[in-house]
Amino acid sequence: MDLKQLEYFLAVAEEKQVTAAAKRLFVAQPPLSYQLKQLEKELDTKLFIRGSHGVELTDAGKELQGYAEEIVSLAQKAKNQVSKTEKGELGSIRIGSASSSVGELPSARFQELKQFYPDIAFDIFEDNTYGIIDGIRSGKIDLGIVRTPFDHTGLDYKELTTEQMVAVTSDQSILKKERLTLNDLTNEPLIIYRRFESIFNASFAHMGSRPFYAVKCDDSRTAILWAKQGMGLALVPEAIASLYANEEYLPITHSSWQTHLQLIWRKEKLSPLIARVIDLF
């Protein structure tokens, strides 16, 4: 018993005529009749009562009809779902989102994707950049939105944004200035996101000075919180400051203090769905 036989059986059951069913299926009548006989032979039962005005289902035929409808419907659904998956129109996207990836998730890009492909699901993992990278490398996560700097070994990426570092402070005398230089920061207590420490150290060393880090932490939002309590100047990406610092921040005049948001994925053959999402960016 194969799918074609069940499709032929259903056509005859619905048309109640072999000739009409053959026309509907675009096949000749002899092959259709042969397939029906093979089906009856395999099931060892008669499925149709043949009369002068057409055919009627036997009790066994009526029993088979329900199962055949389910099987054919399920087969068609499987075919459609497999086709959608192959075209990148179906599946689950596992995305890692660093806390500093504000504005990128969710975005209009994903709304558009969901509008055209409603069967796509999103599985979001929130962690710091290093946690997201570990998830990418282990295969737990498909795509990640993370912030530089980090080791790109084994990863492909697309750059999403470029931002300057800014200084967040609650000190109103400092906020009266238009911008700050590295010289302005030399004698100030600084609050830093630990991952940027090597960049800051190199810049200050080039000037021949040594900064005082009053607080080191692992999240820019934490750095801003301490700055609001008067513990020092928090050096954070501008996008984070604009979201959490209530405009109490100043740009820093130092071109090398830049950070980037990047979309990353493991260097390997991509599924059509993941490739489609990458193309959105």
TrEMBL record:
Family: Belongs to the LysR transcriptional regulatory family.
GO-annotated cellular components: protein-DNA complex
Transmembrane segments: none
Protein name: Transcriptional regulator
InterPro entries with a match to the protein in the record: LysR_HTH_N, LysR_subst-bd, WH-like_DNA-bd_sf, WH_DNA-bd_sf
HTH lysR-type domain boundaries: 1-58
CDD domains cross-referenced by the UniProt entry: PBP2_LTTR_substrate (cd05466)
Keyword Transcription on entry: yes
MF terms in GO: DNA binding; DNA-binding transcription factor activity
UniProt keyword list: DNA-binding, Transcription, Transcription regulation
Keyword Transcription: yes
A UniProt-annotated Pfam family: HTH_1
